[in-house]
Design brief:
562 residues, TIM Barrel, Malate Synthase G, Chain: A, Domain 4, 2 domains, eight-stranded parallel barrel, disordered N terminus
Length: 562
């Protein structure tokens, strides 16, 4: 979609914005309750105070990427050894979230929020990031939904089922995941520049909900957050400063806000102690964001043809580098007195095939038993149907203990080295692996462009992380003319081979989804974008950033006060 040029239309309703703030998204009276002058002013204050720090952190990321592309590899920073070796601990975990044995995640959609809070999980992570397509409508409705959820008034009338959804008396604790530092919010301009997406997400949610949340959910603590995509402790330091600034604005105790950091980039695994140290008054732990971690491994080593991954279905927690990452995370968190959260079970129930369903559930069961036995304090599920299995695995091992912070120290993981964390994964590469990457990547992107960021594909709930793995792996295989050694054919991946695969997979997608849906959907547009990304001379950092402008919709606005 082309960005519309703004024009002056005096009769069009506009948001009551403070000086220097311009809201370019569609006006809606319901959204105006979120985008109040006071809330926008708080977001603008955060933007002005921290934008220089954010710019510097993003430049540091680019500099690190240049080093890796010149042959360097990530490692532990000698200058912060004193932090890794120190005896410090983080602030105590608030009693309200001591037990997080099963967490469910999903986008900030109204029905999803109700079902997730009612699911029986201990925590619901409401997502503005990888499970959400960040259109203006999705973002603003998400804030309306969360405000209603926190004050307990949220309901949803499903007209097709003639059913009204509302909250149970007992609900999961709410965590919110804002976007990463790298993503802009193009519908809100501050001093003529797009706002930082995560500061919009955090600022609006915090401003409207901190008081009620602390009363109803946090027992005097909160709100609670998940923080994505960080690569270095300097980024955690910015978040810590944002939290302190918010606490000061609200007049609440320092250390009220708490966050779990996703360790989902390869550079961050070498910074876990440092990240916790910067957030030591505001953290409740780290989480193994394993799908994004695999994406980051490929991206970090994009210029290292000796570090190519096998088919992505073979890159599981059994791989040495993945197991080392998980074990070191557990040791680090428990040494510092906070939660070590496990990874996502992305399976969804297969209702029309009981045998396949049981096999899928058995994989989930084994994965969760591995996690709890390793020492994780909790785990993630993408679907309410998986919660009983996850709960059974963790409760069967932990009993009534809320977590394993004090009981499982994993001192053995102290021996994990840089080499362990970087070990090249073993396995073959196949034409079917290339096909699956292509099929999943195109279908996910087509859904994202039409407003869905959490997409069921082939019995898995996929978010942006899967599309990212698909994209970067295809790019790397094409770039280096990789031999598909698992087929016995010895075929090498070329642009021509990839072009034929794309054509054949588009035909398959059309058959699978049906001609009508294929015609009405954005599959052809998604195919062009995905193909361009996979064959580009330079690898884009993020798929969602590269295609973001296609979902930006600027509306006519009143005269700017910039």
């Amino acid at each position: 979609m082309e960005l519309e040029t703004s024009v002056y239309r005096p009769n069009v309703a506009v948001y009551d914005s403070p000086d220097g703030v311009e809201v370019r998204g569609r006006y809606d009276q319901i959204f105006a309750k979120i985008l109040t002058r006071e809330a926008l002013n708080f977001v603008a204050e955060l933007q002005r105070e921290f934008r220089g720090h954010v710019r510097y952190a993003m430049e540091c990321r680019r500099e690190a990427r240049r080093r890796y592309n010149s042959g360097a590899v990530p490692g532990f920073d000698p200058s912060t050894k004193f932090i890794r070796d120190g005896d410090w601990i983080c602030a105590s975990v608030p009693p309200a979230v001591a037990d997080r044995r099963v967490e469910i995640t999903g986008p900030v959609e109204r029905k999803m929020i109700i079902n997730a809070l009612n699911s029986g999980a201990k925590v619901f992570m409401a997502d503005f990031e990888d499970a959400l397509s960040p259109s203006w409508e999705n973002l603003m409705r998400g804030h309306v939904n969360l405000k209603d959820a926190v004050d307990g008034s949220i309901t949803f009338h499903d007209k097709s089922r003639n059913r009204v959804y509302k909250l149970n008396d007992q609900t999961a604790k709410l965590f919110v995941r804002p976007r990463g530092w790298h993503l802009p919010e193009a519908h809100i301009l501050i001093d003529g520049e797009p706002a930082t997406g995560c500061l919009v997400d955090f600022g609006l949610y915090f401003f409207h909900n901190y008081a009620k949340f602390r009363q109803t959910q946090g027992s005097g603590f909160g709100p609670f957050f998940y923080l994505p995509k960080m690569e270095h402790s300097r980024e955690a330091k910015i978040w810590n400063s944002v939290f302190e600034r918010a606490e000061k604005m609200a007049g609440i105790e320092r250390g009220s806000i708490r966050a779990t950091v996703l360790i989902e980039t390869l550079p961050a695994v070498f910074q876990m102690n440092e990240i916790l140290y910067e957030l030591r008054d505001h953290t409740v732990g780290l989480n193994c964001g394993r799908w994004d971690y695999i994406f980051s491994y490929v991206k970090t080593f994009q210029a290292h043809p000796d570090r190519l991954l096998p088919d992505r279905v073979l890159v599981g927690m059994g791989q040495h580098f993945m197991r080392s990452y998980s074990d070191l995370l557990i040791r680090t968190c428990h040494k510092r007195g906070v939660h070590a959260m496990g990874g996502m079970a992305a399976q969804i129930p297969i209702r029309d095939d009981p045998k396949a369903n049981e096999m899928a559930l058995d994989l989930v069961r084994k994965d969760k038993l591995r996690e709890v036995r390793a020492g994780h304090d909790g785990t993630w599920a993408a679907h309410p149907g998986l919660i009983p299995i996850c709960m059974e695995a963790f409760t069967g091992h932990m009993g009534k203990s809320p977590n394993q912070i004090k009981s499982v120290k994993r001192e053995d993981a102290a021996a994990i080295t840089e080499e362990d964390l970087l070990q090249i994964p073993r396995g073959v590469r196949t034409l079917e692996g290339l096909r699956l990457n292509t099929r999943v990547g195109i279908q996910y992107l087509a859904a994202w462009l039409t407003g869905s960021g959490s997409v069921p594909l082939y019995n898995l709930m996929e978010d942006a992380a899967t599309a990212e793995i698909s994209r970067v792996q295809n790019w790397q295989w094409i770039r280096y003319g990789v031999e598909l050694d698992g087929d016995g054919l010895g075929v090498r991946v070329t642009k021509e081979l990839f072009g034929r695969v794309v054509e054949e997979e588009m035909e398959r997608i059309e058959k699978e989804v049906g001609k009508d849906k294929f015609k009405k959907g954005m599959y052809k547009e998604a195919c062009k974008m995905f193909t361009k990304q996979c064959t580009a001379p330079e690898l884009d950092d993020f798929l969602t950033l590269a295609v973001y402008n296609h979902i930006v919709a600027h509306y006519p606005i009143n005269n700017s006060r910039l």
